[in-house]
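Hello,

Our lab assistant flagged a job as stuck in the queue for most of the afternoon. It eventually completed. Since we weren't sure the result was trustworthy after the delay, we are filing this so someone can double-check. Below is the sequence as submitted and the structure that was eventually returned. Let us know if re-running is recommended.
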Amino acid sequence: YQDEMLKLINRLKLDDVVVVIKNPPRGDVIAAYGQSEFLVLPSHWELSPLVPLESFAFKKPVISTKSHGTPYTVQDQITGLLVEPENPKELSKAMIDLLENKVLREKLGLAGYEFVHKECNSVSMAQNSLSLYQEIIKNNPNK
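-- returned structure --
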């Protein structure tokens, strides 16, 4: 699949506007986020996707699929756009929609940024873990 995608990007002369990142150094990833308008993550399987959180940290919205854990990270029409897996027409429409709508891109990107800063910091994560453990202890019949 990846080889076909790269050939298509080349054939359509999109090399200067489409960046495909394959095992790059960390600095290259950070630079790519800075240069991008949004992230496309057309995964078939993501249990706990962290890449969208990185994108949100750069105020970049995410286009991804409604597969597995992704909807728990990317909220459709709030922090990004979610499409059905294996639906290239829907995926391409979402990409065109974000390319053509700067206001929507910025709105979704800012919402993602706020989500990361509110929910994905050490204080929130520690409080959530503590609440979970307290609930487990409270409901433990073997007290």
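-- support follow-up --
The delay was a queue issue, not a problem with the job. The result is valid. The two ends are 54 Å apart (CA to CA). The chain has a mean pLDDT of 88.
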